[in-house]
Amino acid sequence: MGTPSFAVKTLETILDSHHQVVGVVTAMDKPAGRGKKIKESDITVFAKEQGLNVLQPENLKDEQFVAQLESLKADLFVVVAFRMLPKVIWAMPPKGTINLHASLLPALRGAAPINWAIMNGLKETGVTTFYINEVIDTGKIIDQRKVSIGENMNCGELHDVLKNEGAELLLETINQLSRGGIQAMEQESKVSTEAPKIFKKDCEINWNNKSLDIHNQIRGLSPYPAAWCILYNRKKQEQFQFKLLASQLNNQSPKSDSKQLILGENGILFPCSDGFIAIQELQAEGKTRMNYKAFIAGNDVSDWELI
After folding, report:
1. Which tens digit of pLDDT belongs to each residue from 73-99?
2. Ramachandran bin of 72, using left for φ above 0, alpha for ψ from -120 to 50, beta for the remaining angles
3. Which domains does the chain have, with CATH numbers?
4. Tens digits of per-residue pLDDT, 189-208?
5. Cα 169 from chain centroid?
6. Dihedral sign (CA 290, 292, 298, 299)
7. I need a surface site. Which of 103, 201, 202, 287 has the fewest CB within 10 A?
């Protein structure tokens, strides 16, 4: 059970093993893009290419869907990046329902663990397999695998590392379950942290924050949904919204009371509370993504300032 590309790697890994996949449950196809054409999810496309039985229920409690699942007689349900399941579903298979989560639970419970791991400045995260129960991301832990977070690693890069590590860990967990003797461990809820869904307000940059916090925010939201800010062009006397997609710390620069942008050796320097941060990739609203050299080729940096 899953929907995005994170789940595709897991399904591919299971298919390459000796285990049999009897069905794939995913979200219904939805309209997307400017033309609002119906778009299949990543997992739907891959599953159909493999000739798998694909189920796309609108309501997970629908009696017909529940009957379909029961008819598959699956020993185990595997969940990767899907929605919360009702008990009638997760309690169905004899070996239970397991979930792959992109954090070291009980840390970063919630919808956006990869983003928040970087935005919170963590040096380490990982993947966890656990049994699903009534409360999201709180079930007994089966196994975990740790992953280091580089100081300039962004969310997209970490996503791909965790996607591969998670697929391997999940296959190991399935192998353990098939042999029996699993010793699952209760989570310590008192040390849990949250990773809630990302909203637009989480993406707006506050230039009163320190450069390290802004750097973590930018890379934790890159490439999607992306940190953003409003810049003012004095020459045109207009405001423009920009996504900031890559940055580098620039601790050598002194603090400035000016809001004016400055051209630096490794990017465009944006003033913040403790100095400057170098922005290396940015995207004006409605335009394509560009590196800072392409931006300065068509713009005088001294014309721009923060709002």
Report:
1. 999 999 999 999 999 999 999 999 999
2. alpha
3. 5-191 (3.40.50.170), 200-306 (3.10.25.10)
4. 999 999 999 999 999 999 99
5. 18
6. positive
7. 201
